[in-house]
Amino acid sequence: MHSEPHILELESVDSTNIYAKKHFDALPDGTLVAAWEQTAGRGRLGRKWVSPPGRNLSVSLVMKNVENPFYATVVTSLGALELLEKNAPELEFFLKWPNDIYHGERKISGVLCEFTQGKGGVKGVIAGVGININLEHGEIDAIDRPATSLKVLTGLHYDVKKLLRELADSLIRYYIIYSRSPETVFAEWKRRNFVIGRRVEIEDASGSVTRVLVRDIADNGELVAERNGTTFRFSCGDVRITRESLDFQRLGGPRAAASGNRMENDEN
Ligand code: BT5
Fold it and tell me: Which option is the CATH number for 196-258: 3.20.16, 3.30.70, 2.60.120, 2.30.30?
């Protein structure tokens, strides 16, 4: 992998993940497939990813040094977080297990990592990242769950081509750090992950919701949660951010009203 990112820019495609999977053998490790329009953008569990043409970043990183989609999510979500923080340093973003970036109660970015195997037997992961950049209010409102964009948050219009290059740099940087020291990257991801130490609602694939206290995230990516004094692991589904979880201190009680819904600093 080169530290200089190779970006394959497509005007329109069904999904950058599908394209990268189809061309996995021909695409060198570390290639970033980007599209300005996705006609069939995908989320997890068969869901759709909404992204009107030209407004957002929709990319897939070809990762041939990672076989576990969870670790690909760790790497790429940190890269996406870095891009957001660089371009809106006054705002507070956080990672939310397993694959999201949020601002307050609203999602601004999602990651979809898929294991793949080429014809020659080479294994790897296609790491798809979608980030809402210039999405307008009306477009946000059309999404069926709370969402936001950089433009809605800051009122500014962003140069998506410039941001694409910055995103490529951040993704490759984290990929290189990961290939040298996976523990460092995993520790950073855990530190920036909102859920650890908080009371949240978890929703499994069938839609059943349970309120839990999240104790940790295991090395295999499972959530280690506690309910009625019993610890259990949760591997597939969503964490719901509620007003209450935003207002609770890690492993503590309600926070001072003056702090509003801003996150406390991560000090652990
Ligand atoms: C995700 O799934 O968040 C993964 C999103 C990955 C998108 C990228 S774009 C490049 C690459 N190519 C692809 O085809 N996909 C990847 P999940 O956690 O399942 O969340 C999906 C849910 O988020 C949907 O069911 C909606 O409720 C909501 N949603 C859809 N579009 C959104 C958007 N633009 N912003 C915020 N939320 C959205």
Answer: 2.30.30
Residue with the smallest CA separation from ligand 1 atom 3 is 110
Domain 6-190 is found in CATH 3.30.930.10: yes
| Domain spans of the chain, in order of start | 6-190, 196-258
Ligand 1 proximal residues by C-beta, below 6 Å? 15-17, 38, 41-45, 47, 49-51, 58-60, 99, 107, 110-112, 128-130, 132, 143-145, 147
Stretch 157-163: mean pLDDT: 98
What is the rounded average pLDDT of the residues 19-44?
97
pTM of the model: 0.91
Condensed to tens digits (0 to 9), the pLDDT of residues 230-252 reads 999 998 888 987 677 676 544 44
**HSE (side-chain half, CA atoms, 13 Å) at 205:** 7
Q: Is the pLDDT of residue 254 over 70?
A: no
Mean local confidence (pLDDT), 137-162: 97
Taking the CA of residue 57 as reference, the ligand 1 atom at the shortest distance is 9
pLDDT of residue 255: 37
